[in-house]
Design a protein that fits this description.
By secondary structure, this protein is α+β, with helices and mostly antiparallel strands. The protein contains three helices and ten strands; from the N terminus they run βββββββαββαβα. Helices cover 13% and strands 14% of the residues.
């Protein structure tokens, strides 16, 4: 499962159709800010606010987005846990004959996204609460939230059930959770006061979006968060699952 977005209404508008994109991927914290959210200039001459006293300035005019505090009322939320992305244009998709939708430019409102993926230790209390309440890992419409059945696919389960008790397999607490369904990811983010990001929000967070001057069609977006080089074991948090062998994502740090 990917990260969650802060949930305060940051939306996505397709510049071609003007419709809202309701796609998903991870969790996002949408944020409401005052003033010019696109200004990344010098903060030296701009008064900043730090209500929670954590040393990080609140989102506002002249505040560098890389140091902006997504929730200035909570000292546990800092740019080290959630990153602020100001409003702007971003690439979505890529030109690929095998893809149903070609590459396009979308305009995104400002939002905050968790720095790391949701790991097993953070997901476990939520799943245990659901199990205690419903007797199964399903929502109120009986939709599966997490797949506890081992052996039904090539993805190894890292959360196990023993009677009414759930636990994380030793050594996998800080690993990104797997085997969670879309409904489970959505429900978890909502339980944290957050939401899943749209496809475009997640893609922008991963590749950095476009520059201050907008998206230049002559400069294609990068293929991976680290650039255009093919993934290897250094930058990629993932695993190649091969039939008959076991694989897993690396710890989120």
């Amino acid at each position: 499962m990917t990260a969650c977005l802060a949930n305060n209404g940051a939306g996505l508008t397709d510049t071609a159709s003007g419709t809202n994109d309701t796609g998903t991927t991870t969790g996002v914290h949408t944020t409401t800010s005052t003033g010019d959210t696109g200004d990344t200039g010098d903060t030296g001459d701009t008064a900043t606010t730090d209500l929670d006293g954590d040393g990080w300035p609140a989102i506002g005019p002249g505040v560098d987005p890389s140091v902006a505090d997504c929730d200035d009322n909570d000292p546990l939320v800092t740019p080290l846990t959630e990153r602020y992305l100001p409003a702007g244009d971003a690439w979505e998709g890529r030109d690929d004959p095998d893809k149903a939708r070609s590459q396009r430019v979308v305009t995104l409102s400002a939002y905050c996204v968790d720095i790391t993926e949701v790991d097993n230790d953070h997901l476990l209390p939520f799943l245990q609460q659901v199990l205690d309440k419903r007797g199964a890992l399903v929502d109120d419409q009986d939709r599966l939230l997490y797949d506890l059945v081992d052996g039904d696919d090539e993805v190894p389960e890292r959360i196990e059930q023993d009677g009414n008790k759930l636990s994380v397999v030793d050594g996998y607490g800080d690993h990104p959770t797997v085997e969670i369904t879309w409904y489970g990811a959505e429900a978890y983010c909502e339980s944290q006061g957050q939401r899943l990001p749209t496809e475009a929000e997640w893609e922008r967070a991963a590749n950095g979006g476009c520059g201050e001057d907008g998206c230049d069609s002559s400069i294609p977006p990068i293929d991976w968060p680290w650039g255009d080089d093919e993934p290897d074991c250094d930058p990629l948090n993932g695993a190649l699952l091969v039939t008959g062998s076991e694989g897993d994502a690396m710890p989120k740090w």
